[in-house]
Amino acid sequence: MSAEVDALTVVNQLRDLAADPLNRRAIVEDQGCLPGLILFFDHPNPQVVYSALLAVRYLAECRANREKLKGELGMMLSLQNVMQKSSSPGETKLLASEIYEILQSAGKEEAERAEAAAASCQRKAHFFLGSNNKRAKTVVLHIDGLDDSTRRSLCEEALLKIRGVISFTFQMAVKRCVVRIRSDLKAEALGTAINSTKVMKAQQVVKTDDGGELMLPFQEDSSVLVEENTDIPDYLPEDESPSQEQDKAVTRVGSVTDGLGWLSTAANFLTRSFYW
């Protein structure tokens, strides 16, 4: 197995571990994972860079992690480098920018928390604190058929192929996906992509004037053109991954023990292989 495939496998596993809120504190406290993720920001494979950014974005959703992430040696500088690098795909730059904004504001959050408690609760429902960024918007999808990790993987693959999707997070218990997209991308493109799996069907969740929720189905005959994202390579198919069984273990709720065991393996790999 090549070093590049190993890197992609490791960073994808870290991304999946970070997607589980139960694992986020342990990943940040681990001595090898954060330095390794920062090194991945400079990897020649753009998919490795993007997956590393997604992992850090998941970690930053935990407020207690933000100061640690911000203070990690090389974190902020490496994010700036990704944002400024001419060869970085647009969605990668935008994701790095969103993470940078979250971490930059970390020191101010404690002072503002009491005064802005209501606003803070509202922000938790959004994908990023920087949701007022005019270049991006948040779409909430309810997905019938989003029942297990296999369906989640299908949904991930469908979303990652859409040019303009920045990032996404799943709420498996309520069959929802919160998607961060460029402001010029129509929500219908997300519905078309997910409905094309033939085993899932998406509806958009919108807020009503009285604070309730309304689910809007996407039209079956929607003619919205879905532009495929060619800047970022596809993920490895599940049957090519040597860590298939570990992936099944760490994606279920309550997988802290399995996740911590895999963290040790990942940290050893990072220490051994990625000090260019």
Automatic annotation (TrEMBL):
<comment type="function">
    <text>In association with mitochondrial contact site and cristae organizing system (MICOS) complex components and mitochondrial outer membrane sorting assembly machinery (SAM) complex components may regulate mitochondrial dynamics playing a role in determining mitochondrial length, distribution and motility.</text>
</comment>
<keyword id="KW-0963">Cytoplasm</keyword>
<comment type="subunit">
    <text>Interacts with mitochondrial contact site and cristae organizing system (MICOS) complex components IMMT/MIC60 and MICOS10/MIC10. Interacts with mitochondrial outer membrane sorting assembly machinery (SAM) complex components SAMM50 and MTX1.</text>
</comment>
<dbReference type="InterPro" id="IPR036163">
    <property type="entry name" value="HMA_dom_sf"/>
</dbReference>
<dbReference type="GO" id="GO:0005741">
    <property type="term" value="C:mitochondrial outer membrane"/>
</dbReference>
<keyword id="KW-0496">Mitochondrion</keyword>
<dbReference type="InterPro" id="IPR011989">
    <property type="entry name" value="ARM-like"/>
</dbReference>
<protein>
    <recommendedName>
        <fullName>Armadillo repeat-containing protein 1</fullName>
    </recommendedName>
</protein>
<dbReference type="InterPro" id="IPR016617">
    <property type="entry name" value="ARMC1"/>
</dbReference>
<keyword id="KW-1000">Mitochondrion outer membrane</keyword>
<keyword id="KW-0472">Membrane</keyword>
<dbReference type="InterPro" id="IPR016024">
    <property type="entry name" value="ARM-type_fold"/>
</dbReference>
<dbReference type="GO" id="GO:0046872">
    <property type="term" value="F:metal ion binding"/>
</dbReference>
